[in-house]
């Protein structure tokens, strides 16, 4: 019974992370190709005393490309980590296999495996934001009307992402979960834990004064 449940859990585990990592690798490959094309397009403008805005654009593009490649590397490593977990408990008696699997499962939880893998999509999202910023700056030097359109679309996308993020933070039932939501929720809870005593002291100080005034 235990091994049946363990096999079902492992199957779901592999399907979840393998799909996420494959998607990250595919996106990273396509996005790095786009970033490289823009870098090649702008590279000649750096040869002779380029304007500072062109230097800024190229810097953002290079950082975006590096971030994408880093995410791809980590995704490849992530697939290896998942495979390493999958081979746990593949040999030995049923008891030995169960103990080995449980040991590795405890290791995943202790080393925050899920949180680490959730960082890979964040790197890709950061790369996309950097690329959008570089594109906006570059278009601003060419045609400001087009740059304004790109700016409006970028702001719309960022606002939509923030709305999804807020919904995921406020409700665990929200279907719009993002990798940043647990991190933002944790940071928010820590901030509230710090400022709650301060707010409580302020209320204790202000309330008597307000009662006297009334």
TrEMBL record:
Residues 46-141 form the DUF6535 domain. The chain crosses the membrane at residues 21-41, 53-77, 119-140, 146-170. Pfam families: DUF6535. This is DUF6535 domain-containing protein. Keywords: Membrane, Transmembrane, Transmembrane helix. The keyword Transmembrane applies. InterPro entries: DUF6535. The keyword Endoplasmic reticulum does not apply.
């Amino acid at each position: 019974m235990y091994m049946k449940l363990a096999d079902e859990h492992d199957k779901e585990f592999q399907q979840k992370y393998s799909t996420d990592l494959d998607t990250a690798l595919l996106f990273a490959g396509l996005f790095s190709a786009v970033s490289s094309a823009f870098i090649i397009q702008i590279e000649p403008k750096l040869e002779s005393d380029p304007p500072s805005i062109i230097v800024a654009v190229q810097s953002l593009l290079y950082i975006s490309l590096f971030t994408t490649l880093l995410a791809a590397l980590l995704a490849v490593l992530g697939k290896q980590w998942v495979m390493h977990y999958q081979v746990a408990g593949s040999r030995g008696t049923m008891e030995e296999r169960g103990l080995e699997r449980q040991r590795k499962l405890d290791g995943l939880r202790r080393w925050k495996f899920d949180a680490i893998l959730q960082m890979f999509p964040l790197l890709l999202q950061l790369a996309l934001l950097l690329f959008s910023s570089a594109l906006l700056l570059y278009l601003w030097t060419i045609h400001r009307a087009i740059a304004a359109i790109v700016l409006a679309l970028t702001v719309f996308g960022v606002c939509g992402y923030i709305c999804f993020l807020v919904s995921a933070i406020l409700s665990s039932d929200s279907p719009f979960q993002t990798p940043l939501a647990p991190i933002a929720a944790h940071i928010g809870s820590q901030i509230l834990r710090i400022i709650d005593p301060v707010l409580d002291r302020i209320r204790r100080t202000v309330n008597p004064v307000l009662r006297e005034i009334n």
